Amino acid sequence: MLYIFICEDEEVQLNYIKSMITEYIVSRGIDAQIAAAEKEPESILAKLHDVRQPSVFFIDVQLEGCDMDGFELAGRLKRLNNEYGIVFLTSNAHMAYKAFEYRLEVLDYIVKEPEYFLRETISGQLEERLDVIFEKAAGLCGGRDRKTIALSCGSKVTEVIVEDIILIQSVAGKHLTDVILRDHMITVRETLKSLYGRLGGDFIYVNKSCVVNRYKMKELDKKERFLYLDGGFRVEAAYREIKRVEGILKSINIS
Q1: Cα(236)–Cα(221) distance, rounded to whole angstroms?
Q2: CB neighbours of 251 closer than 8 A, spacing ≥ 6?
Q3: Does 39 or 250 have the greater pLDDT score?
Q4: What is the C-alpha separation between 204 and 215, in angstroms, rounded?
Q5: pTM, entire model
Q6: Is residue 73's pLDDT more than 90?
Q7: Mean pLDDT throughout 224-234?
Q8: Is 73 within 8 Å of 80 (Cβ atoms)?
Q9: How confident is the model at residue 144 (pLDDT cuts 50, 70, 90)?
C-alpha cells in the first residue's frame, strides 16, 4: 500500500488535486490511498504517526500564510525518513528548481496549469504526469524488479541499482570513471564506453565524457547549455546533443 499526503494552502486546488489523484488511482487500480489532504504543513506532520510506509507527499511550493513553505516541509520530511517520495506542486515551473538549493531529491514536479481547475475530470496532460510519478513511486513499494549492475572498485565489488544512478563521467587524465548516485560516488577502473554498454537504454551521452540517466533529467538551459538533474547536479551539454536532450525531456513531459 502506498500512502499519499497532499499539502496545498488553496482549498479549491486542494480539493481538486485530492479528487484527481483519487480518480487516477482508482482508474489505474493502484494499491494506494490518500492518508491526508491538508492546508497546513503542521497538520501533515501530525498525521504521520497514523500511517505506515511507504508514502508520497504532494506539496505546494509556496504555502502562503503558513509557518513554513513547501521546501521547508519537504526538508523536515526527508530528515524524518529519506525514503519519503516528494512531488512539488507549483504555478511557476522555475520555482520548482529551487529544490536544488536545498539539496532535495524529489520524485517529480507538477506545474499547476489554470485550465486544470476548470475541469471536472482529469486532463490528459495531468494524467501523463501522474503516470510518470506513480511509476517512480512503485520503487518505494518494491513493486517491480530493480535491475542492478556490479561495479568493481579495487578488490571490492558493489551492486548498485541502475535506476538510482544519476550520471557517470570520465575522470580527466585517468583511466577511471565516476558513478554518481544521490548521496555518494563510486570510482571504478572501467571506461565510460564499457559502462554505458552495460547500462541499457535509459542512459544517454550529453557530452563525450558524460552520460546521464534520462529519468533524472529535470531542466535544460539551452542558452548556457547546462542540463539540471535530480539531486542538484548540473552538467554541460555538448552543442550537438542539445536537440536530442531537449527532445527526450519533452517526450517524458518534464521540460
Answers
A1: 10
A2: none
A3: 39
A4: 10
A5: 0.55
A6: yes
A7: 92
A8: no
A9: very low
Q: Do you know the residue count of the chain?
A: 255
DSSP string, the chain: -EEEEEE-SSHHHHHHHHHHHHHHHHHHT-SEEEEEEESSHHHHHHHGGGS-S-EEEEEES--TTSSS-HHHHHHHHHHH-TT-EEEEEESSHHHHGGGGTTT---SEEEE--GGGGG-SS--HHHHHHHHHHHHHHGGGGT-S---EEEEEETTEEEEEEGGG--EEEEPTTSS-EEEE-SS-EEEESS-HHHHHHHH-TTEEEEETTEEEEGGGEEEEETTTTEEEEGGG-EEEPPGGGHHHHHHHHHHTT--
In terms of Cα–Cα distance, which of 189, 225, 190 is closest to 207? 225
pLDDT tops 90 at residue 54 = no
Percent of the chain surpassing pLDDT 90: 46
pLDDT band at 161, cuts 50/70/90?
confident
Euclidean distance between CA atoms 1 and 31, whole angstroms: 5
